[in-house]
Design brief:
The structure holds two protein chains of two kinds.
Chain A: H1 2-33, H2 40-58, H3 60-81, H4 91-113, H5 124-127, H6 139-161, H7 163-173, H8 175-180, H9 185-211, H10 219-232, H11 237-257, H12 262-276
Chain B: H1 6-10, H2 18-34, H3 42-62, H4 73-90, H5 94-116, H6 121-141, H7 143-146, H8 169-192, H9 194-204, H10 206-211, H11 216-242, H12 252-265, H13 272-290, H14 294-308, H15 312-322
Helix pairs in contact in B: 3-8, 3-11, 3-12, 3-13, 4-5, 4-6, 4-11, 5-11, 8-9, 8-11, 9-11, 12-13, 12-15, 13-14
Classes of the chains: A mainly alpha, B mainly alpha.
Chain lengths: 289, 323
């Protein structure tokens, strides 16, 4: 029984980590550019497929890093050519645009790699269970947790201490002032978009090794990442991080006692937050609202 | 929020030229006569009317109040399930089914609207998406009541008095048209009333409206609820059309479809969303029968509309005519 409980909680934490990576990417783009990226889950799938193609050629470890960069490059190209055009317009257009892109990317993935699931093989070192009793503690899962922690820590350190990161944070608060200080806002937005997509690509590679690849693998992660952002508070990345972990763990704990309720609990948490603290846990009044 | 254009407030928002309105009604009334010859079928025309109503309902909020909802499938779907469940479990009565469908969607919209009416812009849109997903999730997982993933089956629309809308597709089309006409007439009245003008003032300059003493949040909430009411009418008709309620009618993909119909036709015009719905429904029907890569084509429609026709087809034509 204890094993079962731990198994479920552990699974929930793993899923929660994917929520966090997804949500941080969506939030980065939302906070700076005011664009809800509907295609984020499809960039995630693209990351997984890139690793699937690159893995046999350059090996798993390089692919783990190269694949997200490849997806980020595609994101960058799309941002420079298409998405940038709707920044100054009503939010309805950016929603429709990324919505359309989501359809196209998903269909392209399906055309190239088929609609059936594909396995993404991970090195044998990571595949083995570390303990007989706790069979679910595979090396891969621990590795996954480590990678996500490193990635999130790197992101926050980058935003806190680097010049570019400082600009992104400043732009979130007041883009006009940032532009007035002579900073190239266009490039800042492009870079920030690519950064968000990189996180999606990384999540895709990691998720591919855990649940396999299919063209709509990112769809199930999109809504939870929206909820994580709403719960944490729009405009606060720390809030998004907390929101993601919170709903991931809440979903996991619920699974133990009430297996079909793991999605309900996310929506319950969201509704409670909206009723009690409408701006979200760490959201500031007046940000985007 | 640009500067207030007095012209926009005082112009007649709900009325095109009389001949274009007459033309639209003439086309709608004669559809069953020529749609077969044009390569379509009557059920397709009913679908156009239903989605047209949903898109016009959304546009009440989006185009005439300037508030963005990306979750109108929720109220459309609530109407759909409300009507379907009534026919399945409660009574074999079409009017009752439509009534309960409308009530379900409108009450759902009013409650949720009250919760989020203080939020703005993208955040508001995001919350509407999330609420849509809640409804989708409930319909999807409540197997014993809603039929779950497979959808709700086992109900049939019933004849109304002497009118056999059950088996005769053409009669059903005219039934849909009558409901559509009543709803659209009400919408036009609302838009021409002082209430409708106030909504346009809110759209044009939210802050100035506030300074004029207009209770802006109340108006946005009312507009949201009215908009959900129209979406729910469309949804309950949709359940009757298919004799089936599908969880995907609640999904955010459906919400996106409704928004693109409104934008594609023209958000600033009264009839625009109907034109957009006609184009989108026909295109979707044609494309999905022609290629397996229909998703790419639909996606491309979204991208092309956003990049090249942001004012929709009607806006594009008007601009051409003005130039």
């Amino acid at each position: 029984m204890l094993t079962l409980v731990l198994f479920n909680v552990f699974n929930g934490i793993i899923i929660g980590l994917f929520y966090v990576l997804m949500a941080l990417g969506v939030a980065l783009i939302l906070n700076l550019s005011n664009v809800i990226n509907f295609a984020h889950g499809n960039f995630l799938a693209l990351g997984g497929y890139f690793a699937f193609v690159l893995g046999p050629i350059i090996g798993y470890w390089p692919a783990l890093l190269v694949a997200p960069f490849g997806v980020a490059l595609i994101g960058l190209i799309l941002e420079r050519t298409i998405i940038r055009r709707v920044y100054s317009r009503d939010p309805v257009y950016s929603l429709l645009l990324t919505f359309g892109l989501a359809f196209i990317i998903q269909d392209v993935c399906r055309s190239i790699w088929g609609s059936n699931g594909l396995p993404l093989s991970v090195p044998a070192v990571l595949g083995q269970p570390l303990s007989n009793q706790f069979f679910f503690l595979t090396g891969y899962r621990l590795f996954l947790i480590a990678v996500v922690i490193v990635a999130v820590a790197a992101l926050f350190l980058f935003l806190r201490f680097s010049r570019m990161g400082t600009r992104i944070r400043a732009g979130t608060l007041d883009m006009e002032t940032v532009a007035a200080l002579g900073i190239n806002v266009r490039w800042l937005r492009s870079f920030n978009f690519a950064l968000g997509i990189f996180l999606a690509g990384l999540a895709g590679v990691l998720a591919g090794g855990q649940i396999g690849l299919n063209p709509n693998m990112g769809d199930d992660l999109l809504m939870p990442s929206f909820i994580a952002i709403i719960v944490g508070g729009v405009g606060s990345l720390t809030g998004t991080l907390i929101g993601g972990v919170l709903i991931g763990v809440a979903a996991a704990v619920t699974t133990v006692f009430f297996p079909s309720g793991n999605e309900v609990v996310m929506y319950v948490i969201m509704t409670l937050v909206l009723l009690i603290r409408p701006r979200g846990l760490l959201g500031e009044e007046g940000m985007l609202v | 929020m640009s500067t207030t254009t007095l012209g926009a407030v005082f112009a007649r928002p709900a009325r095109g030229s009389w001949w274009s309105t007459a033309l639209i009604w003439l086309v709608l009334l004669t559809v069953p006569l020529w749609i077969g010859a044009a390569g379509g079928y009557t059920a397709l025309a009913s679908r156009v009317l239903i989605f047209g109503l949903a898109a016009m309902g959304l546009n009440f909020l989006l185009g005439f109040t300037g508030v963005m909802s990306f979750g109108h499938a929720a109220y459309f779907g609530l109407g759909c399930y409300g009507a379907g469940l009534t026919l399945r479990y409660l009574a074999n009565s079409t009017p009752l089914a439509v009534l309960i469908g409308i009530l379900t969607g409108t009450i759902g919209g009013a409650l949720f609207g009250a919760l989020i009416v203080r939020r703005r812009g993208v955040y508001f849109a995001m919350l509407t998406i999330a609420f849509g997903e809640i409804c989708y999730y409930i319909a999807y997982s409540w197997n014993s009541f809603t039929g779950g993933y497979d959808g709700l089956r086992g109900f049939q629309r019933q004849p109304i008095g002497p009118f056999d809308i059950q088996d005769n597709g053409t009669t059903f089309y005219y039934f849909v048209l009558v409901v559509f006409a009543l709803a659209v007439g009400l919408m036009a009245l609302l838009l021409r009333s002082p209430f409708g003008r106030t909504l346009i003032a809110v759209r044009e300059n939210h802050r100035r409206a506030l300074f004029l003493g207009i209770p802006v949040e109340l108006h946005i909430w009312l507009s949201f609820t009215v908009s959900c009411f129209f979406a729910a009418i469309a949804g309950s008709l949709y359940a009757l059309l298919n004799n089936f309620a599908d969880p995907s009618s609640l999904n955010y993909v459906m919400s996106g479809d409704i928004v693109i119909m409104a934008v594609m036709g023209g958000m600033r015009s009264f009839w625009g969303p109907l034109i957009g719905a006609a184009m989108f429904v026909v295109l979707q029907d044609t494309i999905s029968s022609m290629t397996v890569n229909w998703m790419s084509w639909i996606g491309l429609i979204f991208v092309v509309v956003v990049l090249f026709f942001p004012r929709g087809i009607l806006g594009f034509i008007r601009r051409r005519a003005a130039a």
